[in-house]
Specification:
260 residues, mainly alpha, 0% strand
Amino acid sequence: MATETHGEAEAGLVFHPMDQFQVTPLFGAGPVEWFTITNATLWMGLSILVIFVILVLGARGRALVPTRSQSIAELAYGFIYKMVEDVTGKDGVAYFPYIMTLFMFIVVANFLGLLPMAFTTTSHIAVTAVMAMAVFLAVTVLGFVKNGFGFLSVFWISSAPLVLRPILALIEVISYFVRPVSHSIRLAGNMMAGHAVIKVFAAFAPLVLISTGIGLVVTPLSILAITAMYALEVLVSFIQAYVFAILTCVYLRDALHPHH
């Protein structure tokens, strides 16, 4: 009996840190198609709902003494507006709603992913790649609309020595088309890595059930590590949303002012 209990406890320690990122259907157990409602669909919908509650319902009263939700909405609005204005200039303020939408969706999805049993939508490259490609195409089209073929001057480093300009132009073209790749992988990779590490540490917590000698040491350390990683992930969730938004502003500035 003791051997069976020990075996069951060991079996309970079998874990797969990447299982938390699996996309599964909410209804039924069939294959996931493009029209299937999945756990990713649910948590993206919840992210949109939370944004609506904060920015629309929470700020509709516009009280002189703001409520908590109104304060959050005003802080987010002012923070992103100043960032857009500082990075892109006055011309970029017209595109503030788009950048604000990106930031709010990413930061809310990141924070919702920290809830127990939640699904982190921004850990999937399919989600972040769509946002990154949308930014890439939008700023590219905008650059040609605003500047015509003068937008190509963004690849020509006029301040560099003439002999180096063709080489630098080739490097700039490559780096430009790599933007959506780095833009999307940075966000998805950071979110996935942090959650996977938390899951790995969590697997060591039940060791106290198997071996009192090792478990009494490893379990408290694993709980401490989980707490530290969770606190770090809270910070990373905000920073990654900020990085995605500010890089969008940088790309927008290049489209509006290619000679800058």
